[in-house]
Amino acid sequence: RMLHDRARIHVQAGAGGDGCKSFRREAHVPRGGPDGGDGGHGGAVVLICDDSLRDLQAFRRRTNFHAGRGGHGEGSLRHGADGETLEVPVPPGTEIIGPEDGDLEGRRWELLAAGQRATVARGGTGGKGNKRFTTPTRQAPRFAERGLPGEEGWLELRLKLLADVGLVGLPNAGKSSLLSRLTRAAPKVADYPFTTLSPVLGVLEGEERQLILADIPGLIEGASEGA
After folding, report:
1. Helix or strand or coil: residue 33?
2. Where does the chain show beta strands of DSSP type E?
3. Cβ distance 65 to 105 under 8 Å?
4. Among 28, 50, 97, 151, whose CB has the most other CB atoms within 10 angstroms?
5. pLDDT one-digit tens code per residue, 80-106
6. Would you place residue 227 in the very low, low, confident or very high pLDDT band (cuts 50, 70, 90)?
7. What is the dihedral of CA 110, 59, 104, 47, to 10 degrees?
8. Interior angle at CA 111, CA 206 and CA 183, nearest 5
9. Cα separation of 155 and 94, whole Å?
10. What is the pLDDT of residue 19?
11. Phi, psi of 181, deg, nearest 5
């Protein structure tokens, strides 16, 4: 298939859960104190380098990525669960840039080796339950905090490419024709020398990983001397 080396995606981390306003209600405790638990933290959006990928084709079908929000606090000092982190796989050589027109402006990451991770949007903090606001002079606070929103914004993905396979040969030997049959790349194919003037890339789907094939301009005798 054709190679996709640029993409634009929108990421949104999870909001924090709200704190709980609650008071103990038990038969043997006539004047129970506050027992509202805290809200959980929102989940983050994390891009992770996956060595089985070779281009950004997946982001043509999906461009919005949302992590889980934190759970709300409950009575009896039960804290809300933290939101689930969303992991998004990208190929090695992916550069991640926060454009100038968004909340993630100026941020930049580069994922080169398998397993590298970049937290591109942090989850919101969970709100405090009313138990947290108890003081010697305020023993029955009737309020709690709301959770904070998570970070969100657009990101540009750019792929710095290294080919796995290079097709090397004399001019007009059929390198471009071979590339067009193995992949969906569309190099210029014609019956005259030097039809290919710059490298053309295509992706070959394998059982365990993708391969990048490069169609390289034809080599001629004396090229090393400037011919």
Report:
1. coil
2. 6-12, 45-49, 64-66, 86-90, 94-97, 108-111, 117-121, 152-159, 165-167, 200-205, 210-215
3. no
4. 151
5. 999 999 999 999 989 999 987 667 888
6. low
7. -50
8. 25
9. 12
10. 96
11. -85, -35
Q: Which residue has the higher pLDDT, 204 or 22?
A: 22
Taking only the tens place, the pLDDT of each residue in 152-195 is 999 999 988 667 888 888 887 888 888 888 887 766 655 555 55
pLDDT score at 2 = 53
Neighbours of 65 (CB within 10 A): 20
Token reading at 98: 């926060």
Q: Which two structure tokens, joined as six digits, stand for 217?
A: 């301009």
Q: How confident is the model at residue 1 (pLDDT cuts 50, 70, 90)?
A: very low
Q: Determine the residue type at 79.
A: H
Q: How many CB atoms lie within 10 A of CB 6?
A: 11
Distance CA 103, CA 225 (A): 52
